[in-house]
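Researcher: Structure prediction, please.
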Amino acid sequence: MEEHRTGRRPYGDAVWPPPDEEGLPPSARVYGRPAPPSRVAMPSWARRTALLAVAVALGAALVAGAVAVAVTALGSPETPPAVADAVAGVRYPLPGGWTPRVVPPVTGFTSVAGVDDGALVMTRPGNASDAVAALGPRAAAIGLADLYGRLLLHGDTVEVVDDRWLSVGGYTGHSRALRATYTDVVNRPSYLRVTLLTKDGRSVVVVGLAQPDDARRRAEIDAVVNGLR
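Model: Predicted structure follows.
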């Protein structure tokens, strides 16, 4: 029988890199093909810190230029504490345990008050970007709620839990509240209320945020809004 020689070794030469590793970097051939990162849930305390940081920073996109801050903490042993925001032209009471917070002057918000376990209220004067004159208070408030909801909540589901006309302290306007929930087991639901009030041709925006969402914090945010003068 005639033998045909091909010049190949019985089992063939090793192929390097193997076909299934073609195009991978050398490190991947040693440690394996990279896997896509898994979704890591952010602890609730870290999420609250991030929300507060974003809330302070986002005002720069809403108001052109720096805004001078003039916030005064009011109150005495005989009267409940309150905050007077001279720039926004409003004064509002603070629930028990709440304190005024410092606002950097480059933000659009001109006063902030909060409580340590994850709730706050921010105020600022209205501006042209709110489009109150063009849209009316309700449509403008809905637009602002959508804006702040996208910036602050990042929920897997976000639902409207309240939408109403308001009359407080000589102001009239509209308030809209959103509740965000998350599919992970770490982040607890968040609550956001955005209120737009007008009086004598000027407007004020009030943003309340709580995480975790609960009835007590909702009531405290409502008390601040309803006590605004």
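Model: Confidence is low (pLDDT under 50) at residues 1-12, 27-31, 36-46, 52-70.
Researcher: Thanks, that helps.
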